């Protein structure tokens, strides 16, 4: 199974997962509390510089954020039509900063580290009997690992359409993508149960 983690020796790689996740949380509070397009632009450019400093490569860097970038552009355009240019810039820079920061954290943090930190964060909930902390961490880790798998399957379906000279549409794309994803999810669930990893029955 693919992973979004990229090996490296950058400062961000050397920081603990807890520090990065706390930093990402504080950054989200900052950008959503700020309404200045200029300040948000500076934050977005800084996040872009950090992301590009990871030496992932221009092509891979773009492929990782392509879908989210297009979504942000669409949202910003809707904001421009419905509100004002200033609001559109604010939305664009705010979402771009969050996307780039999250991409940088994901690229420099292993899935195992994510699981450990989420499990530790959910521990108080387990103490009061609401959830199993290990199950929460495992669930988050699987979501992170599934993202590149879903993207890979979408690309394979798209290439199959092009090879057959077929046009892409929602049904012919979504149906096989959902079937393949659910099939893989069943296989992973069976493997997890076979190893008795999940704590909840």
UniProtKB/TrEMBL annotation:
Coiled coil: none annotated. It comes from the Bacteria. It is found in: Membrane. Pfam families: CbiQ (PF02361). The keyword Transmembrane applies. The chain crosses the membrane at residues 21-54, 66-89. GO terms for cellular component: plasma membrane. InterPro entries: ABC/ECF_trnsptr_transmembrane (IPR003339). It is a multi-pass membrane protein. The keyword Cell division does not apply. Keywords: Membrane, Transmembrane, Transmembrane helix. Belongs to the CbiQ family. This is Biotin transport system permease protein.
